[in-house]
Fold:
Amino acid sequence: DIQMTQSPSTLSASVGDRVTVTCRASQSISNWLAWYQQKPGKAPKLLIYKASNLETGVPSRFSGSGSGTEFTLTISSLQPDDFATYYCQQYITYSRTFGLGTKVEIK
Amino acid sequence: EVQLVESGGGLVQPGGSLRLSCAASGFTFNNYWMSWVRQAPGKGLEWVANIKQDGSDKNYVESVKGRFTISRDNAKNSVHLQMNSLRAEDTAVYYCARGGDYHRCWGQGTPVTVSS
Structure:
C-alpha cells in the first residue's frame, strides 16, 4: 500500500498567516491527490482534487500543488473558520489511503 | 440537494456482526462508485471499501478483507456494509461517501462500538 506522510502533525498559527501543509507519498501517485478539511464531530469536506483543482465553493485562499511524491496545501491568509484538521488522500491505487492529518491550531 | 444518510451502527460484542446502510438522494445513484470510510476515536480517516456503479467491482482495505462485504441496491439508492467477526479495532464512526476516488459528498456518519 502507498503510505501518505503529512507534516507537521500540528501547526500553530494566527489569523492572517500563510500556512503550508505537506504531504509525501511513499511512491509516485502522479497528481491523484485530494485534500480535505475536517472539524470536530463533522464529516470531512473536500477542498482540492487532482492535486491542484479547487472544489466549487471553496475559498480561493486555499490552493494545492505538487505531483509525483510531494504535495502541498497552502492557505494564503488563515481565517478563523480555517482552524481544523486537514487530510491528504491518494487515489491512484485501488486501495485508497489518507495521511494521518495536520491539525491547525490557534497560536 | 445531495444527501447521504447512514444507519445501522451501535454497540456489538467482539466476534459479532452489524450491517450498515446508507440511503442516497439528490443525485443519480447508479452513476457513481460509492465508498465507506471510517474514523476511530481521536484518529484519522481510513478508507474501508468501495463498489462500482453496477456492483461488479469491489475493493477493501486489507484489514477487513474476508470480514466485511460492501453491496448496493440501485433500485433503492442504497449502499451497505456487512461487517462480520468484528474486533475492538473496528470501533469507529463509519462514513458513507460518494465516489470511488475522491469524495465530494459525505454522510454524517454512524458510530460502531465493538466491546464486551
Remarks:
- The interface with chain A takes residues 35, 37, 44-47, 50, 59, 61-62, 95, 100-104, 106-109 of chain B (CB under 8 Å).
- Residues 6 and 22 of chain B are 4 Å apart (CA to CA).
